[in-house]
């Protein structure tokens, strides 16, 4: 399937879908105007990627309280175009290269309206059997699509997966499961015997003695979800330093040094967040080294692999080795990837898979009488509320079902390969540029670069402090423009700290010409910064 | 506005909206077929409220992996009708009386498709200024609609509100804020001085010494979200007993007894969940008593009021006194109500308001460089990621905006009053029934009853054990039927334990004739149980 053709088809279908047959009721037209004009304008560049608004723009335009009387729906829809769209940062723009993509597709728009039409809070199987079972099915489809080990499959009866709202939710849920698992482990070590049902109940005394000794680990490159989980659990997070020579990966050796220091202080490692595809540079942690350490030295420790962005690329068999799929399958207790980033599924759709579902249910099952049902009491169905922090949940699986069926595995793979191809083409261009350098090996669709006039005629080596200032100036200049949207980041490593700029491809509507145009703007702004900088140097 | 007329209008509009102009592209028709047929069939009773499916019905019908090639979208849509709808529990059915309603409206279906069309993860203001600002505006609209004190309003610059996914998320977030606040309090008590910026940093030593001494309180009637929050925070939850004479409310005296026992054991109360409208019976805790206790005796304690279901009724000025609005305004640190229950807004839309927003941001702000933006750095915008556990968030405010504008305050109030009227009419009917008793005073739209042949000619007083068994039999019989859906609950109190049945009204499509029909079924099944029971007694 031709993905670019598909994009156009999406637009046409959506317009047809929403067009109203009846001239008297023009609500349909308003929706068509809104969405079709919007996508057309995004495609032809009439709407720049970033909103031009200033803080407070909308607050100043809206009444300070709800209207007394109901208003005509037409008027409300018009206000969507007039007031809301101008304040949207256009993640669906072909020129969106900030953060990571948050792709939305036609299938998901339809899925969302169908989901609303049968709205329910989905906490129990009986809340809507279809919601629970479709989730079981499509999450298993994704586990197979990605090549996850059978232990992660729901059909194993032991592991399984669930759709969460975000990778933060997945990481936090892993954290709760990990803490309870470690405390059960400590209970056994302290002589607690299993109940008649074979369960270990954690005594209050064990909880009091050990809870505050538990420590979470990741690297300085781990997403803020780790530090935030630590805050929520009320436990410390160690951001282990990384090296440029390891391409910003968390290594077993670096981790071991920090853990052993903690252990010698009486602390207990219970949770490690390893990342496949870090946010800043797309780094892949040394999962085999970490996994072997856990196996040999820290058996109470739970390994959660956060592949929020990169994980969908496991759908490409040729990429599995580089992305360490075998290591994830061997060592991870749980795994997360977001289909709502690169994976064509409208936010929110974070896939969280775990090898032992009881790690979740033992920690999260709190069932009062009004939530009981005969099917649950018999243990023949899954109640997803016991797999997640909250009770209620949206019917998210329908989005993923529509996407996976419409695109098929091949269409999904073609979409991924297109983003990777864009990245490889851009890599060549940047490598030929005399003003820019790529600071880490490009990762799938992510390039991290900085302005560094290395081959300028002056032949002067600038140090990181100077380059950081120069690149901050460049980012500021780019950030003032509305026709480009990139993200900055500070790369901390043992060797040095570099202020760099990220360009993340993989948008569903992005053509390579959009990437080229973005790079043209970066070159243009870079050139201006260099002219200024040279003038400054001449004065000095 | 006539709400019943509105329901029909919704259906007509939706059909028109989705109908396709172009015969070649019949995707629109498929969506129309699906949603219009669905709502028509719900209204005329062709589709009973409960799904007739058995566990595994859908898993057995779907392929075990995603298709290799993309499929025709028409086929996928058809499968929604063929496979998904039969497995839906119809929360939008006029005969849905289980749990609490989860109303969905036309406005929200449109809002969801618009939200998908501009999909973004919404974590920063710059992620989409419109998303952040619309949320600020409509949450303030709700705060005013409900009569919440100005301290809860975002425009106060001190407090403010945010839309969460569920009341569980709100309660958990309150829990994190409360714990950090208590630890800051304890830090000050232990001599920690504010930083140059006036901030109290909690030393590791304080965290280690006090974290495991913190205790959460609610009643035996508090929603399971409290026990689950306790699990997630790794802290104990005390379910304080309640009395029938207090109508299942948590009282200051009962609470004080448990807290004082904990304090004498060296523990520290830091969080109380009070409820306005408990799930089981709609009880309202004695917020003034609890609040005064906190004020006078437990100043480290944070009071979160969970009004998940009943809170929207504050939109009715005449009901505010009974629902203790003044007490909430005076004593609560934070407050939650779900517009996605009775409040016409499709799941998910939980409003969480707090009097001091810094309680949230001090606990939840973890900002790495790649999430920084110039607007945030200047402190002139809200970044809602610092008000919630997860990073990413959906554009939920658009649903609420559409609902509040379409219905207006008056239409919203009329919808609420209609549900209350149904409840009052049903109350009369049950009171006249010789076989049933109402076990607690009806609350807004909730009636809790049990089969109890009090005025049967045998004139025999049955004890609770016998009645519990009899009502379990009744619930089992009702639960086997697909044309009625109620929920059971066990009412624990100091005096006795009663197995009872709940009927929760307030559905947006429910007419009083639907309530009457549900009650007819209850009477019919109750009669059968009584006949069986009398036959059984005759044998004995």
UniProtKB/TrEMBL annotation, chains A, B:
The modification N6-(pyridoxal phosphate)lysine is found at residue 341. Belongs to the group II decarboxylase family. GO terms for molecular function: carboxy-lyase activity; pyridoxal phosphate binding. Residues 1-19 form the signal peptide. The keyword Lyase applies. GO terms for biological process: amino acid metabolic process; carboxylic acid metabolic process. It comes from Kwoniella pini CBS 10737. The lineage of its organism: Eukaryota, Fungi, Dikarya, Basidiomycota, Agaricomycotina. Pfam families: Pyridoxal_deC. Gene3D superfamilies: Aspartate Aminotransferase, domain 1 (3.90.1150.10), dopa decarboxylase, N-terminal domain (1.20.1340.10), Type I PLP-dependent aspartate aminotransferase-like (Major domain) (3.40.640.10). Its cofactor is pyridoxal 5'-phosphate. It comes from the Eukaryota. Keywords: Decarboxylase, Lyase, Pyridoxal phosphate, Signal. One of its GO terms (cellular component) is cytoplasm. This is Aromatic-L-amino-acid decarboxylase.
């Amino acid at each position: 399937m031709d993905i670019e053709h598909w994009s156009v088809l999406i637009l046409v279908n959506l317009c047809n879908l929403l067009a109203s047959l009846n001239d008297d009721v023009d609500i349909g037209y308003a929706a068509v105007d809104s969405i079709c004009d919007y996508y057309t304008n995004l495609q032809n560049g009439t709407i720049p990627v970033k909103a031009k608004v200033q803080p407070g723009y909308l607050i100043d335009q809206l009444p300070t309280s709800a209207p007394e009387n109901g208003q005509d729906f037409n008027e409300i829809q018009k206000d969507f175009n007039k007031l809301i769209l101008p304040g949207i940062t256009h993640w669906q723009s072909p020129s969106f290269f900030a953060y990571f993509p948050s792709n939305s597709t036609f299938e998901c728009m339809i899925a969302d309206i169908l989901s609303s039409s049968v709205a329910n809070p989905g906490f129990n199987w009986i809340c809507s059997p279809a919601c629970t079972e479709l989730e079981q099915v499509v999450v298993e489809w994704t586990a197979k699509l990605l090549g996850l080990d059978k232990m992660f499959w729901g059909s194993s009866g032991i592991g399984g997966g669930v759709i969460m709202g975000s990778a933060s939710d997945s990481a936090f849920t892993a954290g709760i499961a990990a803490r309870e698992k470690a405390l059960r482990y400590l209970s056994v070590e302290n002589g607690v015997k299993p109940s008649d049902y074979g369960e270990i109940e954690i005594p209050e005394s064990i909880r009091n003695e050990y809870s505050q000794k538990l420590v979470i680990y990741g690297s300085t490159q781990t997403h803020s979800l780790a530090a935030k989980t630590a805050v929520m659990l009320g436990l410390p997070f160690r951001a282990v330093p990384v090296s440029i020579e390891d391409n910003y990966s968390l290594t077993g050796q670096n981790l071991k040094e920090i853990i052993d220091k903690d252990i010698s202080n009486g602390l207990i490692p219970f949770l490690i967040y390893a990342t496949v595809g870090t946010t800043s540079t797309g780094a892949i942690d040394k999962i085999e080294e970490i996994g072997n350490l856990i196996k040999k030295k820290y058996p109470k420790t739970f390994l959660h692999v956060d592949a929020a962005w990169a994980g969908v690329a496991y759908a490409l068999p040729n990429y599995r080795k580089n992305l360490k799929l075998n290591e994830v399958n061997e060592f991870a207790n749980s795994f997360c990837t977001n289909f709502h980033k690169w994976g064509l599924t409208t936010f929110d759709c974070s896939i969280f898979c775990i090898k032992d579902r009881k790690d979740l249910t033992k920690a999260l099952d709190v069932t009062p009488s009004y939530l009981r049902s005969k099917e649950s009491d018999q243990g023949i169905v899954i109640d997803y509320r016991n797999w997640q922090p909250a009770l209620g949940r949206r019917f998210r699986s329908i989005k993923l079902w529509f996407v996976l069926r419409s695109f098929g595995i091949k269409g999904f793979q073609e979409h991924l390969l297109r983003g990777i191809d864009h990245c490889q083409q851009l890599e060549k261009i940047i490598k030929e540029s005399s003003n820019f350098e790529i600071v880490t090996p490009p990762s799938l669709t992510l390039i991290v670069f900085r302005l560094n006039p290395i081959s300028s005629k002056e032949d002067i080596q600038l140090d990181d402090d100077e380059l950081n200032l120069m690149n901050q100036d460049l980012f500021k200049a780019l950030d003032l423009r509305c026709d480009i949207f990139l993200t900055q980041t500070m790369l901390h490593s043992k060797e040095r700290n570099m202020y760099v700029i990220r360009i993340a491809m993989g948008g569903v509507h992005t053509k390579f010409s959009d990437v080229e145009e973005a790079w043209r703007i970066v070159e243009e702004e870079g050139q201006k910064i260099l002219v200024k900088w040279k003038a400054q140097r001449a004065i000095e």
